[in-house]
Amino acid sequence: MSLPAFDPPVLPLFQSKAQSNARLAIALGRRSYPIDIGRLDWAELAQGLTAPGRLALIVSNVTVDPLFGERLQAALRPVYAEVERLVLPDGEAHKDWRSLQAIQSRLAQLQADRRGTLFALGGGVVGDLTGFAAAVWMRGARFVQVPTTLLAQVDSSVGGKTGINLPEGKNLVGAFHQPAAVWADLGTLTSLPAREYAAGLAEVVKYGPIADPVFFDWLEAQADALAARQPEALAVAVRRSCEIKAAVVAADEEERGLRAILNFAHTFGHALEAGAGYGHLLHGEAVALGMRMAARLSVACCGLPAAQADRLDALLQRLGLPQSAPALDDARWLALMRGDKKSQAGRIRYVVLPRWGQAALAELDDAAALAAVRSVPLA
Amino acid sequence: MSLPAFDPPVLPLFQSKAQSNARLAIALGRRSYPIDIGRLDWAELAQGLTAPGRLALIVSNVTVDPLFGERLQAALRPVYAEVERLVLPDGEAHKDWRSLQAIQSRLAQLQADRRGTLFALGGGVVGDLTGFAAAVWMRGARFVQVPTTLLAQVDSSVGGKTGINLPEGKNLVGAFHQPAAVWADLGTLTSLPAREYAAGLAEVVKYGPIADPVFFDWLEAQADALAARQPEALAVAVRRSCEIKAAVVAADEEERGLRAILNFAHTFGHALEAGAGYGHLLHGEAVALGMRMAARLSVACCGLPAAQADRLDALLQRLGLPQSAPALDDARWLALMRGDKKSQAGRIRYVVLPRWGQAALAELDDAAALAAVRSVPLA
Asked: To pair with B5 at 20 to 30 A between CA atoms, which of A294, B18, B104, B209?
């Protein structure tokens, strides 16, 4: 992986709106695409889409559509002959077969052809679902990610992982399907509830321990500014997160190796989400707790200094993330973690930190994993 | 496309079972795979699979599973720790969401990981459905095609097109996902009902007009032997069909150009299937009628000599394929054909024959298409 250097900016840094806008490129040959970050003009970006088809279908949910649905539809009208909106229920529980079928049925009713484009307007659920719907419509239609949550902007909208959940586990059904563009409009984040915003910061923090210690230092220095949604700090955080994710994905699009490091904390996190019952913990909240567990596991098994795990705990606390985990018995923990996609032939593989700023995969004893789980207080 | 030469064999040609077995390679870089054709030893082929996972799930239907399910399960047992069978209802109507969900649920219950392998044991419906289930399980699991119908052996099992039907049209939801291997066992064809066998021959015949006039000549000469399921003739027909398909797919895996020629007759054929109501016409029967229409369209619009269309009609008749089409009014015809995946922005694109043995895409007047439709007698 070739990661562009991070030159920690001293904030307040940006003197104008234009300076905070950035376009990153995700380098995947024929599947390359731009990620625009900042206060964005959707109409201008729409004009820049190459070879738009006849039809655009905006997929959103009952929370986000009233905020931005009409604005996006208006921005797309000069470019597409037909611009439709499909509004789904909100929440992780609806990242399911029923919602997928609703999108496919709508496309069929609209007689969408292969060049129809889907626009995912919302958070990670809408993005994963809409991306998967695009992946399988006529064996591959185009889609544009318009992420409106911090978590989606810094993580799920970039990289082409799409899918739905089954009752047995998250993202068990899906596809690798890259978007044609990502429009990460920081303006959409002002309406985000505090809990969702903090959950997004968890995925931002993640990039430090796995890839960039200097970025982590900067996040510590800017924790108050970030917690207060200070726009300049936010712009830097989103941009750097996307840079790291783009570099990892470009090096390993289909997760044959390196990309697995992005799943740091996710074996624990997915188990926490499922164990608490979907909807009780936000994904980012589960990742925050999972990071604490994965860091303690790294201290116990892989030589990570405990002081680094302490720093991680402290930063997550300052950013308003939950400090305690739901109570689950050991057998339930292991069963949930074994269902994770990273496990092979029943053995559990964890992403650990042999050094601060560097991640690796390790198969570890159940006892060590359970000790790490117990290092986090119970709710 | 680089097509290996066809040296028309004089039958009876093969003196031993071994001589009729063949292994073709489909050349797709990292996604390359072998196609074995003949009287096959499944246990031996199973031993040759690289890096098998823990679990094999055989997907079949109520008609095929009783014939070959146990044999395949026994052949896989020495290779996989766990070999399960899932038996679905039979028929095109079951290439749907419900069957797809049944496969995914079973995989989840079995805690299949990414290296689990699906085996599609059956005809085109089982193959398309199982391939799609593999494509989306954990964003891409392996599958092996074990086609037991002639149509599946010469067409649908090769090339990686997978998917399900929607009420609005066939194969609207799907993925390109190449199998790890294709086992085209000619021994499975002896149990095939006469109608299904003849329907498979329609797809064999198709390769002549679009790619290989010499093969068509040979098919004319061997029509009686083929209609009588003479094993040597059948072995040649299946092998040459797979050779042509493999060459086309290798040149254009995701149907950005050339591969569309394989859809010769399918715009008409899909409309016939949907118009007659799924289950009334077999896919190959609809393709046979569609070929007659597409050939007449080529005569009317593209300079194909009428004598070639006459030859096609005569061969299809000798092979026992239907000679008359269901009655549909013009508006219904056009609506059904517009729903076809090849149409773009509402215009209908047809695969036509500017010359015998060569296919091309053309956008043609509705009037010309309807005249071609009317050239075939009504049932």
From this structure: B18
